[in-house]
Every structure is written in structure tokens, then in C-alpha cells.
Amino acid sequence: MEDDIFCMIIRGEIPSTKVYEDEDVLAILDISQATRGHTLVMPKAHYKDMLHCPGELLHRVMDVAQRIGQAAIKSLGASGVNILTNAGPSAGQTIPHFHVHVIPRYDVDTGGFEITMKENTDKDLNLPVIAQEIKEKL
Ligand SMILES: [Zn+2]
User: What distance in angstroms lies between residue 120's CA and the mean position of ligand 1's atoms?
Assistant: First the structure.
């Protein structure tokens, strides 16, 4: 166990609003609620990000994230959901304990969350070279 805020929540040292809990997985409402029902799903064991989480446990976390996304549509009136995880500070990860955001989306969306993908302005991108670099480490 580490001293990040999620390990402290898992140990019961900090209160949280639980949505789901089993032996290995905890889901809590994000205190900032980017949208109504914004939930964080995490393994109870400490892994710093998704890339370091063992596959079987990762699948269990994602299964809970899927179920919460389904429940958000059935119970909260959401019309869509973003399910995402940030790995590393450059990707926007602020708490170094793997967690998945489940962010319900509404047709009338008053929340403070959006994803914008813009075309990369680097004109020297060589897709076959990039693909080869990735493939070599798979
Ligand atoms: Zn932790």
C-alpha cells in the first residue's frame, strides 16, 4: 500500500461515496463530478497506472466500469458514456494509482468534460515507421 489518496480511501482513512465494492475492485464517485454520476473504478491493490496492472485484474476493473456505464444509462438518464484512463502525467494522470473514469454524458450536458482530438501538425509523421516502432515492442 502506498500513501496516495486512493490507497487511503481503500484503507478507510478518507471517506468516499462508494458505488461498487468487491474483494479486489472499488468504485467511488469522483468528488469533482465532471458530469452527474462521474465514477472512478480502481483495483484495491496499488498499481501506478493501467500499463502496470496485471491483465486479469485489469479485466475485472474494466468489467465493473462497463457495468457502471450501463447502469448510468439505465438509472441516471445518460445517453452516452466516456470510459477512459490516463497513464502518466503527460496523459493527465494526477493520482498515481490506476483508475478508470466512467463519465456519463447527457443530451443536455452541463458538465465540464470534453474530448477534443486535433490533427497532429508534425508534417514529418511516417506512419509505416511509427507502426514498425510499435510492433517491435509488442
Ligand atoms: Zn495506491
Answer: 34
CA atoms lying within 13 Å on the CB side of residue 27: 22
Question: Helix or strand or coil: residue 103?
Answer: strand
Tens-place pLDDT, residues 84-107: 999 999 999 999 999 999 999 999
Among the options 38, 46, 99, 101, which is catalytic? 99
pLDDT in tens, 29-45: 999 999 999 999 999 99
Instruction: Determine the distance separating the centroid of ligand 1 and the alpha carbon of 66, expressed in angstroms.
Output: 22
Distance, in Å, from the CA atom of 90 to the CA atom of 5, rounded to the nearest integer, reads: 20
Q: Which CATH architecture has domain 5-111?
A: 2-Layer Sandwich (3.30)
What is the spatial distance between Cα 84 and Cα 74, in angstroms, rounded to a whole number?
20
Distance (Å) from CA 32 to ligand 1 centroid: 19
Domain spans, the chain: 5-111
Q: Is 99 a catalytic residue?
A: yes
